[in-house]
Request: fold
Amino acid sequence: MHPKGKIAALAAFALLLIAAFVFYKSGTNWDYVLPRRLVKIAAIALTGAAIAFATMVFQTITNNRILTPSIIGLDSLYMLIQTFIIFVFGSMSPMVINKSVNFFITVGLMMIFAALLYKVLFKEGRNLFFLLLVGIIFGTFFGSISTFLQVLIDPNEFLIVQDRMFASFNNVNTDILALAFALTALTVLYAMRYAKYLDVLSLGRDHAIGLGVPYDRTVRQLLIVVAVLIAISTALVGPITFLGLLVANVAHELFRTYRHSYLLTGSVLISVIALVGGQFVVERVFTFSTTLSVIINFIGGVYFLYLLLRESKA
Amino acid sequence: MIEVRDVTKLYGGKPVVDSVSVAIARNQITSFIGPNGAGKSTLLSMISRLADKDRGEIFINDREIGRYKSNELARTVSILKQTNHINIRLTIRDLVSFGRFPYSQGRLTKEDWRYVDEAIRYMELEDIENKYLDQLSGGQRQRAFIAMVLAQDTEYVLLDEPLNNLDMKHSVQIMKVLRRMVDELGKTVVFVLHDINFASCYSDYIVALKGGKIVREGPTADIIDTPVLREVYDMEIPIETIGGNRIGIYFS
Amino acid sequence: MKKRYLTAALIVLSVCSVFIGVKDISPLDLFSLTEQQIQILLVSRLPRLVSLIIAGTSMSIIGLIMQQLTRNKFVSPTTAGTMDSARLGVLVALMLFTSAAPLLKMAVAFVFALAGTIVFMKILDKIKFKDAIFIPLVGLMFGNIISSITTFFAYKNNLIQNISSWLQGDFSIVMKGRYEMLYLSIPLMVIAYLYANRFTVAGMGEDFSKNLGLNYRQVVNIGLILVAAVSSVVLLTIGTIPFLGLIIPNIVSIYRGDNLKNNLSHTALLGAVFVIACDILGRVIIYPYEIPIGLTVGVIGSGIFLYLLMRSRAYAS
Reply:
């Protein structure tokens, strides 16, 4: 099938799932059910799109299909921020209850962290893997502190922390959602300035420079875009570490092309399908006995192991 | 003309290229030779701005390379490194079409495709143009990469060890193509070579480096010479003239 | 750094370790110990010291073995998925046998740790791009994936909190009757010592080893078994001590070069000294409370790891 056909099929499938999600067993109480489901579906689509876009770009910059941007420590930082706030101010603090305040604090701190990390490391040199490894070490560092705080926290408050450990689409605030939409749209729009370079960047640094890509600047800008998108989606719903890995690889397998116009659109659609479909199954089949992000991470992780062991394309 | 002025590159505080100045004339083949660690590849990387220089200036057609826009420079100089590992699956035709990126920014016009076709024909790759790179032999892959550089249609073509991992037949084939590019298409080719005899048979001008500095430079016949090579390689290399080419006998 | 300085440091720190704690026991009391003081020494302080020494030594040594086998300075149980696999094993043991005996848990954890490490080695074989920094990156990703599987099952069975307790290494839980499993590490260390040279050769690669008449598979397997066994023992008794197996061998190789056999004793000593020092630090900083060793080593260790990385780059380029 031509890539355009595949995109159309994916889009149709995504729309079908969304329709099913919104209208399935909606009962007669439309005024109540419909707006809530629409908000949820919007949050899901936004998160899915942001993560898929960020991961695809990230994998192209790093020339690697086995990395995901969450590993540069943003997930762990998110957990640390949440744990720290609950530990110091208690679970009744406005910083925990008021989602907007929490969203701003989290996104702000994550951006500061990413900016500092990039700033220090770009001065140092330009080995991308070095940057990632340093990010991971910071992740372990944040993780150590969070775990320590979690042990000290009162068991009741721990439940609230545990709640934050897993992404959830169930109580997304409409105000933040609109804001997150605007921020994501602006970021993606900005990234589009560099989109034409993505195909060439997948040839690797040397070829990209040789073919006239302003490499250092492009990679920096795109890494910032990636950090912003991941920060927004994580602050909005919580960490889903392996979603990006899953959908980016499925997109590569499905499209088998180097053209990012198809890859990006495709991975965004696959991501929406995975999340909406997954949420549908979780709500209607498992009836909330587990959370979507745990399942996605599980499936993503297993699929990824399979890819690694089958044939290394790294 | 490419003019390198007093260029230095430091690794961990030590110079690998040490205040090198050299001028590379147009419409010629210039080769960089020298023992391992002489700084040949680093010098080539700096000219193609794959590596930053720590000191000095490099002028291409009288303009410092830092003052070029990225894609402007990519329309003037192309570079092919010795390892060309690519992570994605591409056909030869896909790869060659990337050579038009500096002109088309990814949206190839009819004109661009004409260049692509021509480059593929020039490198005699028409029959296999839809094969994937990972299905090719070393020689075919090297030709595919040179076709990409050809499609890039730059005045200057830089190659780092273009004969690496090629057998005799393919080495000669590649060198002949490069020679033709200079003679027929008016390009300027600069390469780094290990084998002094290939340098001798195919280049017009040779720059010999050692320990980050230029030891000698001059027309091929002046450099392929026992006393000069002794200075460069610290070994005795008798020179014989065979079929009009000066050949160094360095095997015993 | 001479071996005797390290030994001296070890002795001094050991003495300090024994006499620091909520209950005051001073060295002078040694000759007139009360019944209660003897109890504290025997039940808590001495077991703690012994377990510190064993854990520090054995984790550092298996780190060294892993680095020799993979020829990569940044591979260790924390950066190769070994610890995460062992944790998954503990969880499986908990799920299958609700009240599993420690030895059973340890056995299951061992099997998982071994399997995980073997998978990691398989992945390494398949990766074409063997950049020194890329490989630990793959290992850490691999560890994250295993963790996500652990989380999945833990979440379904409401065991998240139990799992968390193995995330953080902690010596304050060490008491007589609860740490003896650690002694299993001692014979393992003896084997490591006997095989030291063979690990070095095996690290040079399969072809190289065969050329020297070494049974490559066997040596690698023994190395992996040692790594998995020690990791699971330490995980079950103490918890995770991040980066320990990574930084100690690296520091030793900075000042002593890379001969495994000569470095073993240094690595062992330095590992013990480092862990005891971190433990004492954790006990005095917020006295009378304690900071668990997982956190102190995690913080100090990540700092040292970063330094090592920067340093190796300065060398490499």
User: Anything to note?
Assistant: Chain A has one domain: 3-313. The two ends of chain A are 26 Å apart (CA to CA). The domain at 3-313 of chain A is CATH 1.10.3470.10 (ABC transporter involved in vitamin B12 uptake, BtuC).
